């Protein structure tokens, strides 16, 4: 299997598992651990965890909001100066989760490279 | 290089975590706020109105039926379970507001919103809000039955708070990044203080003192008469007062200090008030008495009111509750209906205090000195800092103004005597009203009630109607408390209270109706001292004239009256203006506007332009008449609108009509023209920017979120007419916060509506679903369940099972 795909699935699985007992930053823990176990190369180090968590958060938020016609999301999108557009709010939610996970992924990768070189 | 990369990525990770997890300015901790597991997406949930739950503390099962307005109908087996369930259900739907209001009362907003609230908090502390709540609590402790219900209510709220995980917190907690603290009985006392401050802290003493000093006694009396000729008081003029055997306190021979103060504390909104009335069976189209009530307050979301039905096998009541207080406040039960309007008299007075020395441990009193007591107020701020404020207490009350607060003299200050700090068990009044069956029960319920004084209107299925002006009123001497008093003179202390049985009241009057709209409680024949301290002069006359206009009234008539936009004030001012104003200098554009208001029928309706003209013109005219009041660094209150109109129409050449800064001597007619031209200019400009100035758009009625009016959670440009002086007393953001009309059939038929919704969650369809109907004057029939069984109006039933853990 493609390494990117393995990283994607691992990150997703860990993020979902951790979310049951950790706050929102569980996605950062998931990304760091995955980066150590399934290290990636170049920009994928950032973008794979970024897209994994972005998709996860957008998907989950969408499921929560759609049963309530996004009544609150539209108001919060006003509050955050997004013109009342709940799709934009979904996007922002995804980008924030993604950013946290992506940066954590980069850190995990550096941790991995660092320990590899010190072991040799 | 490796080290550098590692450290750089670590730092970046920490920075990203910090930024996303911290509240920065007004931006919430954004990842905490938006993540789908604990953030706002979790508040995006339809209401859950059925199922079973187990909550410890309940003795027997409780059933809660929710109707299609999300009104809970609570059926308990005993009072303790009932009030425990009331606390639980209120917290479930209104937790953030419930807590926020008591933080505001206690002067603790800085803990939640930060430094911006320090001034507000300090004012609350200096007014003794927490001290007052402690006094009330001390009184309530003497009543073990009420205390047990207060405790049950408190436990009910805490049962909900304790069940909350991060994800279930109301949105506002997530936005401001804090958590609810446990509820306690003192918070109920604080909420009642909040209402007392809103309704019973109006006074003009220091402003009047300044006016007296500047204008002299004769002019003062001309500007601020104690009574007006047209007063149509709450208790009818022909009342026989011979039953009053006590006398008014004699006026002592003494001087009042003519001090000055540059700035006073903000006053409650002068429009805080209400309408209520009851008509007898003889005057009712169906033969059953009818009762109506609509309290006027600043309109917020979540609404100040929360509607409930509260039932046990012994009693069943329904109506508007105040989140934080027990029972129904304005509503009905199987046998009676009741409602309240504000009956304030001057119940807040100021005393000049002279300290012995800089230590301020003693102040002058009589021939000697009395000790002050010190109360240290700690104001905690969100960032972790604490500010200390020391407030000195005299036997009158707290020294609100001193050299630490709006004053500059280290050796003197102004102490406040306020009924709000007297302490009282006001909760028991409402608990008793909820179970009252007849006039005597009603009377016993309201007897111990202290403040804020209310006009308690009453009607029963037995056919009685009544109205008591109830509160504790000091038996003041003529003129006492109108101005600053001498805190060292024992003659200036508040005298004994008027015995409760001599409070003004009326039962089954011949005219067939009782009513109140915050006007004078009585006329000059009442044996105790009353003076005009800002009483209504318009709504009251419209209401009373309406009930004198025909023989029989229906529920629809009463609804219509609550929604009446007839502008009596304009109708008493405008014809005179139009008759006497010289229009020869008006331009074509001005003439167009002039003709618009000339054709007005005095109804402030939303589709008209004339009420927009009037609402711009009148304040300009008013301010122009009283240009003499524009004095820097002197606190002054201008005379009331009624007196202003009286002088404009009866004394058009009075010296006050002259504008001091012009060399000419102006008359009322000059002021009319001058302010009309300014009005026209403003409206023409408005039209260029916003289009036609029809009243709905021009007035821009809104209901703002309780947290600094957050626009995203507020509602704007509502289609409702009226202004502060119409029976439908809707100004821009202040008006009928609850309307109810009840027919005392058996069982009673009730209709109610309020500008909000039952849910405090901005993500719920029930957050603001009643606003549109409220604005256009529609009512919902209240589903007063007769048995603990769901009928067709019920959408879900929840059961609470007791547990003995």
UniProtKB/TrEMBL annotation, chain A:
Transmembrane segments: 12-38, 44-65, 86-107
Keyword Transmembrane helix: yes
Keyword terms of this UniProt record: Membrane, Transmembrane, Transmembrane helix
Domain of life where this protein originates: Bacteria
Name assigned to this protein: DUF1097 domain-containing protein
TrEMBL record, chain B:
Coiled-coil region(s): none
UniProt KW Hydrolase keyword: yes
UniProt-listed Pfam families: Penicil_amidase
SUPFAM superfamilies on file: N-terminal nucleophile aminohydrolases (Ntn hydrolases)
Tree of life domain: Bacteria
Entry keyword annotation includes Hydrolase: yes
UniProt keyword list: Hydrolase, Zymogen
Protein family membership: Belongs to the peptidase S45 family.
Name used for this protein in its record: Penicillin acylase family protein
């Amino acid at each position: 299997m493609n390494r990117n795909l393995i990283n994607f699935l691992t990150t997703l699985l860990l993020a979902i598992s951790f979310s049951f007992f950790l706050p929102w930053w569980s996605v950062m823990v998931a990304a760091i651990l995955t980066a150590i176990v399934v290290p990636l190369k170049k920009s994928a180090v950032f973008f794979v965890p970024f897209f994994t968590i972005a998709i996860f958060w957008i998907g989950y938020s969408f499921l929560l909001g759609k049963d309530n016609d996004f009544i609150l999301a539209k108001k919060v999108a006003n509050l955050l100066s997004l013109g009342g557009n709940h799709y934009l709010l979904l996007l922002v939610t995804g980008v924030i989760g993604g950013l946290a996970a992506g940066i954590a992924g980069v850190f995990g990768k550096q941790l991995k490279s660092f320990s590899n070189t010190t072991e040799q | 290089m490796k080290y550098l990369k590692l450290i750089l990525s670590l730092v970046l990770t920490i920075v990203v975590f910090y930024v996303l997890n911290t509240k920065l300015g007004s931006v919430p901790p954004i990842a905490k706020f938006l993540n789908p597991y604990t953030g706002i997406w979790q508040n995006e949930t339809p209401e859950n109105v059925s199922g079973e739950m187990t909550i410890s503390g309940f003795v027997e099962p409780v059933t809660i039926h929710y109707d299609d307005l999300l009104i809970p109908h609570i059926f308990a087996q005993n009072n303790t379970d009932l009030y425990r369930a009331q606390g639980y259900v209120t917290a479930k739907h209104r937790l953030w507001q419930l807590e926020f209001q008591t933080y505001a009362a206690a002067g603790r907003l800085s803990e939640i919103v930060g430094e911006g609230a320090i001034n507000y908090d300090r004012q609350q502390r200096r007014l003794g809000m927490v001290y007052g709540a402690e006094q009330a609590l001390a009184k309530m402790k003497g009543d073990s039955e009420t205390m047990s219900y207060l405790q049950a209510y408190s436990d009910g709220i805490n049962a909900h708070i304790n069940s909350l995980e991060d994800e279930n917190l109301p949105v506002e907690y997530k936005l401001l990044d804090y958590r609810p603290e446990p509820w306690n009985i003192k918070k109920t006392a604080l909420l009642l203080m909040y209402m007392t401050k809103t309704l019973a802290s109006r006074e003009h003493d220091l402003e009047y003192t300044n006016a007296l000093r500047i204008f002299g006694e004769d002019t003062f009396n001309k500007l601020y008469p104690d009574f007006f000729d047209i007063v149509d008081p709450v208790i009818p003029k022909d009342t026989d007062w011979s039953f009053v055997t006590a006398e008014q306190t004699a006026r002592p021979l003494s001087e009042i200090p003519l001090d000055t103060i540059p700035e006073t504390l903000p006053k409650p909104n002068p429009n805080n008030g209400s309408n209520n009335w009851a008509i007898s069976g003889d005057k009712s189209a169906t033969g059953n008495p009818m009762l109506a009530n609509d309290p006027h307050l600043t309109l917020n979301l979540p609404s100040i009111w929360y509607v409930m039905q509260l039932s046990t096998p012994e009693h069943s009541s329904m109506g508007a509750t105040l989140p934080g207080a027990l029972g129904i406040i304005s509503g009905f039960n199987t046998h009676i209906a009741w409602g309240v309007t504000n009956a304030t008299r001057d119940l807040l007075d100021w005393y000049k205090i002279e300290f012995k020395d800089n230590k301020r441990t003693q102040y002058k009193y009589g021939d000697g000195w009395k000790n002050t007591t010190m109360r240290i107020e700690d104001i905690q701020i969100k960032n972790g800092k604490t500010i200390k404020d020391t407030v000195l207490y005299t036997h009158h009350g707290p020294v609100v103004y001193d050299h630490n607060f709006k004053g500059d003299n280290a050796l003197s200050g102004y102490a406040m005597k306020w009924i709000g700090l007297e302490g009282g068990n006001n909760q028991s009044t409402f608990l008793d009203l909820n179970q009252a069956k007849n006039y005597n029960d009603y009377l016993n319920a309201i007897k111990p009630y202290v403040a804020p004084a209310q006009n308690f209107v009453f009607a029963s299925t037995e056919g009685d109607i009544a109205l008591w002006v109830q509160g504790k009123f000091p038996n003041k001497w003529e003129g006492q408390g109108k101005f600053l008093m001498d805190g060292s003179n024992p003659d200036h202390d508040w005298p004994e209270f008027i015995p409760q049985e001599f409070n003004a009241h009326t039962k089954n009057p011949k005219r067939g109706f009782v009513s109140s709209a915050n006007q004078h409680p009585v006329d000059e024949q009442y044996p105790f001292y009353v003076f005009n301290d800002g009483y209504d002069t318009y709504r009251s006359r419209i209401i009373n004239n309406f009930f004198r206009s025909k023989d029989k009234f229906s529920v629809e008539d009463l609804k219509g009256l609550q929604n009446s936009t007839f502008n009596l004030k304009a109708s008493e001012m405008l014809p005179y203006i139009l008759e006497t104003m010289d229009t020869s200098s008006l331009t074509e554009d001005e003439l167009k506007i002039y003709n618009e208001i000339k054709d007005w029928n005095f109804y402030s309706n939303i589709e008209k332009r004339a009420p927009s003209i009037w609402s711009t013109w009148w304040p300009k005219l008013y301010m122009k008449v009283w240009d003499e009041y524009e004095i820097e660094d002197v606190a002054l209150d201008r005379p009331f609108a009624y007196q202003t109109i009286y002088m404009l129409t009866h004394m058009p050449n009075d010296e006050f009509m002259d504008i001091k800064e012009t060399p000419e001597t102006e008359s009322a007619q000059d002021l009319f023209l001058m302010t009309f031209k300014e009005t026209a200019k403003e409206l023409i400009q408005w039209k260029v920017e916003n289009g036609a100035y029809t009243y709905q758009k021009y007035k821009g009625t809104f209901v703002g979120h309780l947290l600094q009016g957050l626009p995203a959670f507020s509602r704007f440009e509502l289609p409702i007419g009226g202004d502060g002086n119409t029976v439908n007393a809707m100004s821009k953001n202040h008006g009928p916060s609850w309307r109810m009309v009840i027919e005392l059939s058996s069982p009673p038929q009730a209709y109610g509506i309020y500008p909000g919704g039952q849910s405090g969650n901005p993500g719920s369809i029930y957050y603001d679903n009643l606003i549109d109907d409220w604005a256009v004057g529609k009512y919902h029939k209240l589903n007063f369940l007769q048995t603990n069984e769901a009928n067709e109006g019920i959408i879900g039933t929840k059961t609470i099972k007791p547990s003995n853990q």
